[in-house]
Specification:
By secondary structure, the protein is of the alpha/beta class. The protein is built from 11 helices and 10 strands. It has 2 domains: 9-265, 3-Layer(aba) Sandwich (Rossmann fold); 269-319. It has helices at 18-29, 51-62, 77-91, 114-142, 153-157, 163-183, 213-220, 233-243, 284-289, 291-294, 306-319, and strands spanning 9-12, 33-37, 66-70, 96-99, 145-150, 188-194, 253-258, 261-265, 269-270, 300-301. Helix 1 links the parallel strand 1 (9-12) and strand 2. The structure holds nicotinamide-adenine-dinucleotide (NAD).
């Protein structure tokens, strides 16, 4: 095993089941000291139990690894603080934080209640702040850190009946991008993972979304021919662990792990259409006339900040002969 986490301390939230459990066990096998955080709630975020985290800690110790359990909720500020303190009180440092805890409360967009919206935003999006901020402060003090935020293909690409979850999960992309920008001054890297695995959450996927004809057709026509036996937590673990490893220089990225295909996901602006030079804005009709060009995918640019997008504009303007 070349990639090791000796002398490093990692927090993995929601590590009592599914993906997080897989990450925790393998990271401990590779030498990390791991805070196994899990509230022990159901796939819809009801109830709590210490046994989920405790079981994983026992598994790690049985393999000769080091781990402590944390039963706090990521969805409150005090819980987030306590999770980070578990690492600092036990081992005095923090190197890695994988924000992974979560659950689902699916429904039609128009029917989502505040309980469904707030519950999901709290655990996935605000939880990433509540754990991420004290974790970042500890990493900044140590001059080193690896953050991984768990987003979702549902969040970035879309899934009917998951507007609350998609909003929370895509919010993590913006959060991670800014953590990566600010963290670059302190040795802290941040990335986003879109995993795909059959887990407890699969049972929460109310098939009511099949009432949407175009979406139902997409589900029925999905090509799973390369996915047999591979939509499982263990196929997601290698990319997650690589992204938080010492040797990985990647930051400010989004990565997808699906059925053993590992890929960067990019948010790009296409070349587009540049309005004629000068300070007179185009008409709405000019946009209509150039809409095909606005959608044209031949040239694209991936700005890594607000300011880099101005460079993409200047490049497009030069290509189109509008400005030199
Ligand atoms: P899982 O239910 O097996 O594991 C999630 C764990 O989070 C559970 O053990 C649960 O008790 C814990 N948890 C829930 N609320 C918590 C809280 N407030 N504080 C601490 N722990 C809490 O599900 P999973 O599929 O392993 O999901 C892990 C993460 O991956 C989630 O964020 C999920 O949204 C995301 N994700 C999963 C998939 C997939 O296909 N399984 C796809 C995209 C994203």
């Amino acid at each position: 095993m070349d990639i090791r986490f000796d002398d490093q301390v990692a927090i993995i939230t929601g590590a009592g089941n599914g993906l997080g459990r897989e990450y925790a066990i393998e990271m401990a096998r590779r030498g990390a000291r791991v805070v196994v955080n899990d509230l022990g709630s159901s796939g819809s975020g009801e109830g709590q139990s210490a046994s989920a985290a405790d079981r994983v800690v026992e598994e790690i110790r049985a393999l000769g690894g080091e781990a402590v359990a944390s039963h706090d909720s990521v969805a409150t500020r005090t819980g987030g603080q306590a999770i980070v303190e578990a690492a600092l009180d036990t081992w005095g440092r923090l190197d890695i934080c994988i924000n992974n805890a979560g659950f689902l409360r699916n429904d039609r967009f128009e029917d989502l209640t505040d309980e469904q919206i707030d519950g999901i935003l709290n655990v996935h999006l605000k939880g990433a702040f509540y754990v991420g901020q004290p974790a970042y402060r500890a990493m900044r003090r140590g001059g080193y850190g690896r953050m991984l935020f768990t987003s979702s293909a549902s969040g970035l690409f879309g899934h009917a009946w998951q507007a609350n979850y998609a909003a929370a999960k895509s919010g993590l992309v913006g959060l991670s991008n800014v953590v990566a920008l600010e963290g670059s001054a302190y040795g802290i890297q941040s990335n986003v993972l879109l995993p795909t695995a059959d887990s407890r959450l699969s049972a929460e996927m109310d098939p009511g979304f099949m009432e949407i004809p175009a979406f139902a057709a997409a589900v029925q026509n999905a090509d799973f021919s390369a996915s047999g036996g591979r939509v499982v937590p263990s196929f997601n673990m290698p990319l997650a662990l690589y992204l938080v490893s010492r040797g990985c220089a990647a930051t400010h990225g989004i990565y997808s792990s699906n059925s053993g295909r590992y890929a960067r996901v990019r948010i790009c602006a296409l070349e587009g259409w540049v309005a004629p030079a000068g300070a007179i804005p185009p008409a709405v009709e000019d946009i209509e006339a150039h809409f095909e060009q606005i959608e044209q995918m031949d040239n694209w640019f991936e700005p890594m900040s607000v300011y880099e997008e101005f460079g993409a504009v200047a490049h497009a303007a030069r290509l189109q002969g509008v400005y030199r």
